[in-house]
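From the pipeline queue, job 12 of 40. The input is one protein chain; the requested action is below.

Action: predict structure.
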Amino acid sequence: MLDYRLNLRTNLRTLRLACGYTQQDVAAALGVVRSTYAYYETGKSQPDIETLVKLSRMFGVTLDQLVLPGAELPADRFRVKHRPSENPQTIGGLTQREKVLIACLRSQGF
C-alpha cells in the first residue's frame, strides 16, 4: 500500500503558495475550518476523496500529481503562471473575498 501522506502534505503547501492562497482561503473554498485544512498540510489528518478531487480542481493538477510519490508538479501547470509574491496576500490586488470566491469556483471545476 502506498503511503501518499508525505507527498500530499508537501504538494498542498507548495500549490497553495504558488496560487497565492492562505490556508483560510482554501479552507473556505472547501467549506471546512482553517485548522482542518492545516491538518491536511501537516499530515495530522487526510482529506476524503471528495475533498481531494476539489483540491486537485482548485489547484489545476491531477489526483496523481497531488498524491502519488514521483508524480511531479510541473511549474507550467500551476494556475498562477508567475513566481509567488513575497507576500501571498497581494495576488493581483484581489480582496480576500475575491480570492475565496476564485478558490471555491476552482474547487467545483470552473
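Job complete. The domain at 5-107 is CATH 1.10.260.40 (434 Repressor (Amino-terminal Domain)).
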